[in-house]
Specification:
Strand content: 15-25%
Radius of gyration: 19 Å
Number of helices: 11
CATH class of the largest domain: Alpha Beta
Number of domains: 2
Strand order of the largest sheet: 1-2-3-5-7-10
Bound molecules: acetoacetyl-coenzyme A
Oligomer: single chain
Helix content: 40-55%
CATH architecture of the largest domain: Alpha-Beta Complex
Distance between the termini: 29 Å
Order of helices and strands: EEHEEHHEEHEEHHEHEHHHH
Length: 259
């Protein structure tokens, strides 16, 4: 399938999704949101795809929601656009396959929010992060007020959202907003190495872990642990669990079958 604003390729179990509007620093227009939704629909339905690497073409990851498009919207239209965008971010987060954001450059506003809807953020040394919405007279609208404080803590989340300050990749690493910082050349290879490590594990265990972690973060600890206890039976009743434990006892590599 061809997309207007994205590149979509599959290789060796990895879907590479690249936001492709480099002239506008990959700003998220309604067309980008529609394409992202359709691309993640494909990821969801395609058994060949085990992990997603999401990145941006050119010097930016994504420099935010499309300000030119937003500037022309009425209040009602603005509400509808933001609600749709927030739904798309929630949808990306809910996909039962790991999604790695390969943050190659600016991840600002909706771009930082898109990265935060992914499971992991691997950043190039050139990446910069920020929620500059207050400079435009608005607040983050693709989940930033919720996901940023959960990742970096309440005080730093408020600091970044209320100052609009940009931070470099090493500071983002120190804050826990990204998991790794590497040189630009190493960005995609590092993400591929992470993808391959995850792909070597039992897929049912990976998808169950993702679901329980995401849902559990919205619950108190006893409720989250109850969810974990229930979810534990899903991989425990799989063929891959039998194979994984047998392989350990036989001192060999497990051959998982996603069953
Ligand atoms: N929307 C629309 N167009 C954008 C854009 C955006 N978010 N960010 C950059 N562009 C466009 C610029 O207008 C420019 O277009 P022209 O060549 O037609 O003039 C082109 O991309 C290149 O950008 P710059 O010339 O500005 O590049 P730079 O290297 O000088 O600066 C930058 C880079 C600091 C990232 C700067 O582009 C910038 O500040 N961008 C806006 C960042 C921002 O405020 N993002 C938040 C958006 S609001 C939001 O995201 C709400 C939400 O929560 C959903």
């Amino acid at each position: 399938m061809m997309f207007e604003t994205l590149k979509y390729e599959i290789k060796d179990g990895i879907a590479y999704i690249t936001v492709n509007r480099p002239k506008a620093l990959n700003a998220i227009s309604t067309a980008v949101l529609k394409d992202l939704k359709a691309a993640f629909d494909m990821v969801k339905d395609d058994d060949q795809v085990r992990v997603v690497i999401l990145t941006g073409e050119g010097k930016a990851f994504v420099a935010g929601a499309d300000i030119a498009q937003m500037s022309a919207l009425t209040g009602v239209e603005g509400h509808d656009m933001i609600k749709y965008g927030a739904d798309v971010m929630n949808y990306i987060e809910s996909i039962d396959k790991p999604v790695i954001a390969a943050v190659n450059g600016f991840a600002l506003g909706g771009g930082c929010e898109l990265a935060m809807a992914c499971d992991f953020r691997i950043a190039s040394e050139k990446a910069q992060f920020g929620q500059p919405e207050v400079n435009l007279g608005i607040i983050p609208g693709f989940g930033g007020t919720q996901r940023l404080p959960r990742l970096v803590g309440q005080g730093m989340g408020k600091y970044l959202i209320m100052t609009g300050e940009y931070i470099k990749a090493d500071e983002a690493l120190r804050l826990g907003l990204v998991e790794k910082v590497v040189s630009p050349e190493e960005l995609i290879p590092t993400c591929e190495k992470l993808a391959k490590t995850i792909m070597s594990k039992a897929p049912i265990a990976i998808s169950t872990a993702k679901r329980v972690i995401n849902k559990g973060l919205m619950l108190d600890v006893p409720a989250g642990v109850a969810l974990e206890s229930e979810a534990f039976t899903v991989p425990f009743c799989s063929e891959d669990r039998i194979e994984g434990m047998k392989a350990f006892l036989e001192k060999r590599e497990a051959q998982f079958k996603n069953r």
